[in-house]
Amino acid sequence: MSLKDFLGSLFKSTIINDVKESVKETMEDVEKKVVKITHNVVKSLVLVVMLLVGAIFALVGLGTYLNETVAGLAHGVGYIVVGAVIIILALFAKLMQDE
Hints:
By secondary structure, the protein is mainly α. It is 90% helix and 0% strand.
């Protein structure tokens, strides 16, 4: 084995080890970040689901209240009013999202 071969193999193994260490550190860092982001997404998703369920109960209650108490909104018109308000709010949210 010549000096050139010895230095070549030493240099290659050093570079390969450096690359392996760099890749290992990067993968560990990415894994930590993915776990953190996933945790935040799950918390946000649970919050959104709870808010949606609460909103549904509130809107159904409001529709029932309007049907029972306001004479002009009897026979299900209260539910239509609440549904129309939801549609208007959704369209407003969509317009705000596009900007």
